[in-house]
Amino acid sequence: MPQMAPISWLTLFIAFSLILLLFNFMNYFSFLPQAPFHQKIAISNSPLNWKW
């Protein structure tokens, strides 16, 4: 029935939008970034002589 097509389009739009959001959330929250390796720098031992 062509009269019911807009309701079908609306439900398809909502379904695909929810699937897209769910897919993006799952990809975003499943990614665990690795912390970059930083060497320890002894800031307290180095003199801070500012010459303005």
UniProtKB/TrEMBL annotation:
The keyword Endoplasmic reticulum does not apply. GO terms for biological process: proton motive force-driven ATP synthesis. It comes from the Eukaryota. InterPro entries: ATP8_metazoa (IPR001421). It is a single-pass membrane protein. One of its GO terms (molecular function) is proton transmembrane transporter activity. The chain crosses the membrane at residues 6-25. Its main location: mitochondrion. Signal peptide: none annotated. Keywords: CF(0), Hydrogen ion transport, Ion transport, Membrane, Mitochondrion, Transmembrane, Transmembrane helix, Transport. It is found in: Mitochondrion membrane. One of its GO terms (cellular component) is mitochondrial membrane. F-type ATPases have 2 components, CF(1) - the catalytic core - and CF(0) - the membrane proton channel. Belongs to the ATPase protein 8 family. This is ATP synthase complex subunit 8. The lineage of its organism: Eukaryota, Metazoa, Ecdysozoa, Arthropoda, Hexapoda. The gene is ATP8.
